[in-house]
Amino acid sequence: MRRATHESQWIRGEQQELLGIALGFDFCAEHEAGTPALRARYGLGTSLPEGIEDRRIKRLPATFQYAQFMYQPSDKRRKAYPCAVLGEVEHGKLLDRLNSPRGDLSFHSEPFDKWYRPEQDLVCAWSSQDFAVMVRTGEDRENLAVLNRAFESLDIVFGVGLSGGYAQHRGLTFVIASLICEETRATVLEQDIEHKRLIAAAAATGIEERLKSQGRGWYALSPAWADADKSAVHFFLNPRDQKQFNHGWFTVGELDAWAQGSGPVVKTLPERAA
Questions:
Q1: CA distance 41 to 87
Q2: How many other CB atoms sit within 10 Å of the CB of residue 170?
Q3: Would you report the helix, strand and coil content of the chain in percent, each value rounded to 5?
Q4: Closest by CA position to 171, among listed 126, 222, 225
Q5: Is the Cβ–Cβ distance between 90 and 1 less than 8 Å?
Q6: Phi, psi (5° rounding) for residue 51?
Q7: CB atoms inside a 10 Å sphere around CB 172
Q8: What global pTM score does this model have?
Q9: How far is CA 245 from CA 110, 219, 263, 267, in A?
Q10: What is the DSSP letter of 113?
């Protein structure tokens, strides 16, 4: 599990009503590997979804936890205060991860510190295997309790980077299914159908198989339409061994060149002085 450092926030509607939460993201492998194992524990399949109901959780695993507790700041001279946590960890219990050396479930400042910022009241962390949300203000604790009740009643839409007018955030998102309007449901379905067309076009290039056959590895190889009429695709590459290889958007031809050890993906070594 890796702490998210960007765009962790509550998702709200036009009237500022609570709709769900975006756990945000960091530029790391844990947030680029997808969440198939996590999805499977909530009863979701591996095929590309079509519409909201395909994303709705079907069960709540035994590893899921919600707890209210007293948080003890690392400075033991300071008093403990009420907090809440929701989620699951791959091994053990959520409360065992508080103030761990990794810092994925700890507050970076206290409300009475000089460097305190209100956005630090919400702590989110996740990976392909687990996730957690920890909060401390009264309003945030109420929000997390609402989210927990939605999980318990299987009223949660689970996704990564969902969009459609209600969750235009990056990273892992959870939205309360019963609060999603019909207009948004129609938009998501339309986007899902279009996304399937993109994935099919990307697969038809065969580039992933050709790269693997040459031993190339990556953390992310994500397709997008390369032109306005959506007739060609290009890929965002986040490669392994970044001392040798560049990241960025590349055409199929440029990726084929990378497979053969040339092209713009390969970093140019600086010339040695004579």
A1: 12
A2: 16
A3: 30, 25, 45
A4: 126
A5: yes
A6: 95, 175
A7: 26
A8: 0.74
A9: 41, 12, 10, 5
A10: S
For residue 266, the one-letter residue type is V
Give first-to-last CA distance, the chain, whole Å.
48
The torsion angles phi and psi of 143, rounded to 5 degrees, stand at: -60, -45
Q: How far apart are CA 128 and CA 109, in angstroms?
A: 27
Instruction: Name the amino acid, one letter, at 231.
Output: S
Q: Say which DSSP state 31 is in.
A: G
Total Cβ atoms within 10 A of residue 273: 4
Closest CA to 81 of 66, 69, 90, 89: 69
Tell me how far apart the alpha carbons of residues 258 and 76 are, in angstroms, rounded to a whole number: 54
> What is the spatial distance between Cα 159 and Cα 141, in angstroms, rounded to a whole number?
22
| Cβ atoms of 105 and 125 closer than 8 Å | yes
What Å distances lie between residue 191 and 94, 120, 157, 164, 195, CA to CA? 35, 33, 16, 8, 6
Q: Look up tokens 């490669």; give the residue.
A: 239
Tokens at 40, concatenated: 């499977």
Token pair for 63: 């590893």
Q: pLDDT tens digits, the chain, 274 residues: what are they? A: 777 777 788 998 888 889 999 988 776 766 666 788 888 999 998 788 888 999 999 999 998 999 999 988 877 788 888 999 999 876 667 777 766 655 677 888 888 788 878 788 999 988 888 899 999 999 999 999 999 999 999 999 987 544 444 344 467 889 999 998 898 889 888 988 998 999 999 999 999 999 999 999 999 899 999 999 999 999 999 999 999 999 999 999 999 999 999 999 999 865 544 4
